[in-house]
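Please fill in the sequence for the structure shown.

STRUCTURE ENCODING:
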């Protein structure tokens, strides 16, 4: 609540749903010393007084506005001109005049008709994007605008002093304030609000005119109810809006007719692939944008409430065969290469996480028809190496650095221009490291953020030259981005890496029939070839499998098999380290899928692990698995020492410190060092009793910390509570479900 009111005297002209909701906010937040109103009917004024919303009510707006420092026009937009004409002589230069109308162009026209081109600097039109089907002074609610958007459309004549005060006002109503120009407002609203209302009224009208209308409405299912809900809105208001925003609405209707004709034709022609493409694209777009839009409130919510895992003590069996989610790096590439291949690519085991879904959406936006994902299955109808189409707007890469860096290479070689954007965290990540070599190839690419960061803006060009590039840093993403641009470049493109990095791109290109040479640390390919659609089985992610591997290794009598896990040699450090610690671990059924080696990994709890000095050459190959390995080390006999792993301090959390804090909470003696940790294992050969004391662990919203400490629940004498576990769902959505099935019950609570 404000200690000093923002306004001396506020005059509402019109006090229905919107006006009275704002008046309620002003009272609750102490925003005005005095509130008065003018409406058409005396009854509204009497009711408003009885509700305690206004101190005085007038039938003539002139009486209301005298001495007011804020005038809010909260009436139908068609009445704007007449009201402004009437009150104009009674307003001072310091009066702020705003409105809440659903259209803005005609409100500005009304003001110009009254004032001429020189509008007062206190005049700032606005539009709260919040409402309800009911109208009138009794329908108002104090929280109507909370968590909704309010659009202000300041004019060149509007004073900043007035805009700032209105921003403060709407923020006090807990709304998110956006400033936009008038034309943009009317165009956006025509598509997102006015067209849907028009369609809802029209559909109900179409059905109501049928002879069997009674039956139709009687049997109408939930879909009809959802779709037609907004046709219950005030006809007069919508009549006014349709006229007031005529030009933009007619444009939106034209677009709708065009789209309707397109889908009609696909059904008429029984064009199954194109219809699936259209429906799939629409469904995915809705999920994608819903997700993006839902994200911020979710994150804000997470500040106050976080998810928590609780694991009760007691001896547990840990058994079963499991398939953990697919590998992220491979999921991304399956979409990218499937899209530019000739023919169809069928993907199984696709990781339906946010990052890979951003890649999928980007290719849909470039005209590729993609079915799914459904239970990890995706079918991509490849458009061939030259078949991508210009996206209609910027490609949104969410949090995914892989998508942005790999696509930088691909997009640099297209005929069309493109822009890639990302979320706040991706927008801070360096993109020059990929832009620089691409420029050497002739690409016109700019990192338009500060300090070489996104957005990335690319001008289409089809004349790239193959180059040789010595990578200054070990980065699989930069290597891949260059090689992918090389698919379209003249001659040979090659990259030398300082040390081996993940080679998923090379392997998968070969699986798509593209020749890639690897000679030592030098990788090369010739431009101008083609990719052929194929079957891709995305291997299960070894990083996710690692939690279950450690769980089984520390639990007596356990027998767990993790199926079809990717065992790309650049990723298998965790297997090597667990074996060195003495785990009973076998790699079975080795095979190749989509160019990647995969195998089933079986781990049994038959012997106590031993502490070791972790081999430094394995550190880069197991970097994501150390939190889980620390749990194994705590259960081992003797000391475990990790060195050469400073990288762990700059992951999603400082994984050395956060793990050390948690281990200490649970009774484990350990010493974090600059580049590693020393853990005094409490295990004794042949003794399978509890190792951990239980306790409350702060995961710092780091999914791998949360999952690692969950495994400690297999050897704990006390209750383990892990706070901040909501991030687990983004990398391993089935984690608690699989842990439960294996015999480790995890209670999830908010
Ligand atoms: P409402 O509940 O029907 O209230 C309208 C108010 O304006 C009433 O107090 C009415 O007086 C007064 N009024 C009507 N015609 C008038 C005239 N010619 N001269 C003086 N006063 C007049 O409507 P609302 O939903 O609050 O809508 C107000 C504005 O907000 C509209 O411009 C609308 O486009 C915009 N808006 C509405 C929504 C929504 O969902 N409803 C959402 C966003 C924006 P009486 O009480 O005496 O009839």
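FILLED IN BY: designer on duty
SEQUENCE:
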């Amino acid at each position: 609540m404000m200690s000093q009111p923002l306004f001396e005297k506020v005059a509402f002209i019109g006090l229905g749903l919107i006006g009275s909701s704002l008046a309620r906010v002003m009272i609750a937040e102490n925003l005005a010393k005095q509130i008065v109103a003018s409406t058409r009917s005396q009854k509204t004024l009497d009711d408003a007084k009885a509700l305690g919303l206004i101190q005085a009510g007038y039938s003539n707006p002139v009486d209301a506005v005298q001495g007011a420092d804020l005038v809010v026009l909260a009436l139908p937009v068609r009445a704007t001109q007449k009201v402004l004409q009437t009150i104009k002589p009674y307003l001072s230069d310091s009066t702020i005049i705003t409105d809440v109308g659903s259209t803005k162009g005609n409100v500005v026209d009304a003001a110009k008709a009254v004032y001429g081109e020189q509008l007062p600097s206190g005049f700032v039109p606005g539009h709260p994007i919040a409402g309800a089907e009911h109208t009138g002074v009794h329908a108002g609610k104090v929280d109507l605008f909370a968590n909704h958007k309010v659009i202000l459309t300041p004019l060149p004549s509007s004073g900043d002093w007035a805009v700032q005060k209105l921003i403060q006002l709407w923020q006090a109503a807990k709304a998110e304030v956006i400033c936009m120009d008038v034309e943009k407002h009317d165009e956006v609203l025509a598509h997102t609000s006015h067209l849907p209302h028009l369609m809802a009224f029209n559909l109900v009208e179409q059905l109501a005119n049928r002879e069997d209308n009674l039956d139709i409405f009687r049997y109408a299912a939930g879909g009809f109810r959802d779709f037609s809900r907004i046709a219950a809105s005030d006809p007069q208001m919508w009549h006014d809006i349709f006229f007031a925003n005529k030009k933009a609405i007619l444009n939106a209707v034209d677009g709708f007719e065009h789209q309707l004709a397109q889908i009609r034709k696909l059904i008429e022609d029984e064009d199954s692939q194109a219809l699936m493409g259209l429906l799939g694209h629409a469904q995915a777009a809705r999920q994608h944008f819903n997700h993006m839009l839902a994200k911020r409130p979710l994150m804000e919510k997470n500040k106050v409430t976080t998810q928590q895992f609780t694991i009760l003590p007691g001896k547990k069996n840990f058994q079963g065969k499991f398939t953990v989610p697919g590998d992220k790096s491979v999921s991304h590439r399956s979409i990218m290469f499937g899209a530019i291949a000739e023919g169809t690519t069928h993907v199984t085991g696709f990781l339906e996480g946010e990052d890979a879904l951003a890649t999928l959406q980007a290719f849909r936006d470039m005209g590729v028809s993609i079915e799914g994902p459904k239970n990890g299955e995706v079918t991509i109808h490849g458009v061939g190496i030259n078949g991508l189409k210009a996206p209609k707007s910027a490609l949104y890469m969410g949090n995914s650095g892989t998508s942005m860096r790999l696509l930088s290479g691909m997009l640099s070689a297209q005929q069309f221009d493109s822009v890639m954007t990302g979320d706040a965290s991706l927008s801070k990540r360096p993109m020059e490291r990929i832009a620089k070599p691409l420029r050497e190839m002739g690409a016109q690419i700019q990192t338009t953020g500060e300090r070489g960061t996104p957005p990335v803006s690319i001008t289409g060009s089809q004349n790239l030259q193959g180059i040789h590039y010595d990578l200054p840093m070990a980065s699989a993403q930069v290597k891949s981005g260059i090689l992918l641009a090389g698919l379209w470049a003249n001659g040979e493109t090659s990259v030398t890496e300082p040390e081996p990095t993940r080679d998923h791109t090379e392997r998968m290109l070969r699986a798509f029939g593209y020749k890639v040479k690897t000679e030592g640390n030098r990788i090369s390919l010739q431009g101008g070839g083609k990719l052929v659609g194929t079957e891709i089985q995305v291997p299960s992610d070894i990083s996710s499998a690692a939690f279950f591997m450690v769980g089984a290794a520390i639990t007596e009598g356990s027998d767990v098999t993790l199926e079809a896990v990717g065992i790309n040699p650049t990723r298998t450090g965790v297997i090597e380290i667990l074996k060195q610690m003495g785990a009973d671990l076998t790699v079975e059924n080795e095979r190749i899928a989509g160019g990647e080696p995969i195998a089933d990994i079986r781990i049994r709890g038959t012997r106590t692990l031993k502490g070791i000095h972790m081999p430094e050459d394995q550190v880069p190959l197991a970097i994501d698995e150390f939190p889980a390995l620390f749990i194994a080390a705590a259960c081992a006999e003797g000391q475990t020492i990790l060195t050469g792993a400073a990288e762990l301090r700059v992951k999603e959390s400082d994984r050395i410190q956060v793990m050390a804090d948690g281990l200490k909470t649970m009774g484990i003696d350990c010493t974090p060092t600059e580049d590693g940790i020393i853990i005094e294992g409490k295990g004794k050969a042949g003794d399978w009793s509890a190792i951990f004391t239980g306790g409350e662990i702060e995961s710092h919203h780091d999914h791998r910390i949360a999952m690692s400490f969950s495994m400690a629940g297999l050897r704990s004498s006390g209750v383990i509570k892990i706070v901040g576990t909501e991030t687990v769902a983004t990398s391993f959505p089935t984690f608690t479900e699989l842990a439960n099935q294996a015999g480790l019950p995890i209670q999830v609570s908010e």
